[in-house]
Predict the structure.
Amino acid sequence: FAHYQTGINFDKYDDILTDVSGINPPPAILTFEEANLPETLNRNISKAGYVKLTPVQKYSIPIVLAKRDLMACAQTGSGKTAAFLLPILAHMMRDGVAPHSLDLQEPEAIIVAPTRELINQIFLDARKFAYGTCIKPVVVYGGTQTFHSLRQIYQGCNILCATPGRLIDIIKREKIGLTKLRYLVLDEADRMLDMGFGPDMKVLVNSPGMPSKEDRQTLMFSATFPERIQSLAKEFLKSDYLFVVVGQVGGACSDVEQIIIPVGQHGKKDKLVEILQGLGIERTMVFVKTKKRADYLTTLLCQENVLATSIHGDRLQKEREEALADFRFGKCNVLVATNVAARGLDIENVQHVIIYDLSDNIEEYVHRIGRTGRCGNVGKAITFFDTDDNEDRTVARSLVKVLSDAQQEVPAWLEEVAFSASGTFSSIGSTFASVDSRRGVSHVPGGHAQSAFATAEDDASWD
């Protein structure tokens, strides 16, 4: 069992405000014991080193156990995966899983995530929590031969973890049945419904045998839920779905120290080398826009005696897995990555994130810096900002708000850029009352207030 190490600020999660909107939400829980999970599952939770619930788990676990649809938004690194896996497994253990024929496996749960690395991580968690039970999680994703995926499924499949492309391919080949599906989970749901994956998700829910949204439980989790994504999500969710918001919606984790450095394109390489050589062996992720730049910088860093590797969509799946392993286990202390690694990956002890190329999407910025400062650990995120670059200037106003909401210092020069910028302003980090895009839905803030909506804070693609 992998034993996750929480950080010195883990107990700060008790101070994070939580908001639940929707009709008749079940009360939150304070401890794993209150969830009344099966004993085998409790043992596996203990073996994995889970002692205390995070806010998203306190509110989401009872909602899923109550068989309600859910849209949950919580900062990166806050335990969202366990928040849906544990109650799903609890239901399956209690209800039992039906034996399946060798020719056609019919999973009770399908979990979809945008990247191979993330879906494999979810699978490993599912396998860990299902240890010692008859529940069989399986993972399938692109970059491997289809027959290998099918062989895994034929050996038994109760929980299917998949990337969109490979999942749709297997469904179209009629290699799995959907009639027994009870749970559909979209992780990093904002990306699953946007950024090119939306059509695949519509194909999925309209596939032959797929239960209607009224006859299945649909769960969506992400660190960001812009209003446009909420609008798309309503096609997949029952009308009485619950919306859980932990902390500032889409906000950056306050455990991450955010530093913005003004540097032009021609000065970035030297500045990167200078910073990394100063950090020594501390584990650092560097984010860039293009695959070509990822490889170029990796080569440059190695020439400067900085142990680095890269991960992006043009690398073979085996190469990507090797790069992640080298980074996880300390063979390389720098990982240069494109967006493929920006979401969901949970790598322990990443002390630093450097955003070499700033995204023009503030949600992507939040996801990128969220690779550090996870589960109460502290981290530092350094962002290169080119004041002459129009794309960087476009995001300046939203960047100032993210920094302010996370109680970070906002440089005077950045405020000046933001004031003069013509770009749009993101509402990321907006107050709870305006988060759920549904009109006329009750909102009662959580935190330390006792209410029917929130009760748990009193105590302590690539395919």
In short: The CA atoms of residues 70 and 219 lie 5 Å apart. The chain has 16 helices and 15 strands. The chain has two domains: 10-246, 256-420. Confidence is low (pLDDT under 50) at residues 424-434, 447-463.
